[in-house]
Amino acid sequence: MSAVFLIVLALPLVSSQSYHWGACPDPKVQPNFNLQKYLGTWYEIEKLPASFEKGKCIEANYATRSDGTIQVLNSRFYKDKFRTVEGTAVIPDPREPARLGVSFSYFTPYAPYWVLTTDYTSVAVVYTCTDILHLFHVDYAWILGRSRFLQPQTVLYAKQLLVGEGVDIFRMKATDQMGCRN
């Protein structure tokens, strides 16, 4: 009974998310991932819905800190204001450097941030999934670019990769990158 109650309480929180019954898929990640090449600015091209990420001109900047963690600085234009949020990324297992963990609060655990593929210079595909009570999962996926716009065939390639890894992209939407500051 209490599990059903928790699910009912959680549904409004994930209603704008992409959730599915069953366990999270376990996609392959970028082999021989090179964090140093990945650092820098990435622009959000398309994503699965994320209630914490509304607005336009969404971008992320990754930089190493002196303590070995990675600074994650996300920015967006939302409700007529430029907003930023800072988080921390870590590589929990150095044998799998493309499977990072990211947190935007000292009070929350690191969430998965898996780089499925990147060429480091133009495109990256990122995925994360959270299992809820082993009954369903909430997943997020991002297609990122080093510029605010990618060629349609590059976006198609990224979507096909996600589908091939078992990710449902039905709700994937383009991010508005028009009229953004440089």
Automatic annotation (TrEMBL):
InterPro entries: ApoD_vertbrte, ApolipopD, Calycin, Lipocalin_ApoD, Lipocalin_CS, Lipocln_cytosolic_FA-bd_dom
Listed GO biological process terms: brain development; lipid metabolic process; lipid transport; response to reactive oxygen species; tissue regeneration
Keyword line: Disulfide bond, Glycoprotein, Lipid-binding, Pyrrolidone carboxylic acid, Secreted, Signal, Transport
Gene3D superfamilies, per database record: 2.40.128.20
GO molecular function, one term: lipid binding
Subcellular location: Secreted
Keyword Secreted: yes
Ranges for domain Lipocalin/cytosolic fatty-acid binding: 34-169
Domain of life, per lineage: Eukaryota
GO cellular component: cytoplasm; extracellular region
PANTHER family in the cross-refs: APOLIPOPROTEIN D
Signal peptide bounds: 1-16
Organism from which the protein derives: Merluccius polli (Benguela hake)
This protein's encoding gene: APOD_2
Record has Metal-binding as a keyword: no
Family the entry assigns: Belongs to the calycin superfamily. Lipocalin family.
Protein name: Apolipoprotein D
